[in-house]
Amino acid sequence: MKRTRLFIALTVAVLGCAQTRQITDAEVMRVHRSTLLIDTHNDVPWRVVDGFDIGTKVRSGHTDIARMKEGGVGAQFFAVYIPGEFVEGNRSASQTLKVIDAVRHDIIERYPNDFMFATSAKDIEEAHKNGKIAALMGIEGGHAMEDSLRLLRDYYKLGIRYMTLTHSNTNNWADSSGDMTKAGVKHHNGLTNFGKEVVQEMNRLGMMVDISHVADKTFWDTLEVSKAPIFASHSSCRALANAPRNMTDEMIVALAKKGGVVQVNFNCGFLSQKFLDAQPAESPRLEARFKQETAGKKLSEPEGDIVYDRLRKEMGLTRAKLSDLVDHIDHIKKIAGIEAIGIGSDYNGVTCVPEGMDDVSKYPVLTRALLEKGYSAEDIRKIYGGNFLRVMRAVEAAAGK
Ligand SMILES: [Zn+2]
Description:
Helix content: 40-55%
Order of helices and strands: HHEHHEHEHEHEHEHEHEHHHHEHH
Oligomer: single chain
Number of helices: 16
Bound molecules: zinc ion
Strand content: 5-15%
């Protein structure tokens, strides 16, 4: 391993490149441990609500306590993700309450030595000082509040500290990037008047407004109406990977100007154009193999995602590279500055993550890559959590908290 690295370093030196500094493992870990790593999007609750034990010693999927500790995770926003299907029959609120209970009861209360329930920037720092992982919650999908500000306030009281205005589905008050070209969906040209009230009520409560997943016009409307900075809990750059779910340069720059932060998503499909281009050819092969493997088994969606992740590796299909992830960070730095970058992995919510970044234990691999790219320890501390804490504090201050 060491020899390979030295060889690469020498080769780079011979080629006349600037990055010749060799980074030791000790330096990587020293810098890594000096950060307060806040990941604003992990979908493991989706699995926990079905009975998965986050304290398990069996490594499957992207997330469990042991690997969170290996990865040096300081604070985790657990996604309270509500699939769009729950809109039918008004089942969204009931599902939201179940997932909140999964986080509070099955994750935080079950493992009090590992997690501390957190609802503020101060709590995050306090948990970190006590050597615990701060555990927070964000709702993914504005339909969770069933068009009721009363439910929104209830969710805040239960500890929800951000809400993603939409998931892939347009709801009754905000357009999503996920169905803009889908026939039969009633769109609103961004946020409706009630949607604007939702944003204002979130501002008043001190709940962070998350624009990941929303349509471009919804983003612009939200940016205009919100009196506190807004953020993207798990989004990447459209200039590098052309997915409608990613942010354009214009959006990133405007969000940063208002003090917000883009928490970069690790999903291959949001990081790598090469991955996106390979899908038409590779997807049918992957699907066929998936059907073969899971024939006769009844898998939940999160369990199915784990199988896809494994099969993609076994079949040697295209994945994003660690350098793609670094490129997105670099791109945001170039157009909007170091203050606009954060981490929103989407672990356990996606079927493909970059090579080398296989699960939550791998964050130090990213730290090494950033050091090699010339990022300072101070830069990395900002990216990993400093920037996000600044935004969270601004949202709290705007609410008078
Ligand atoms: Zn998402």
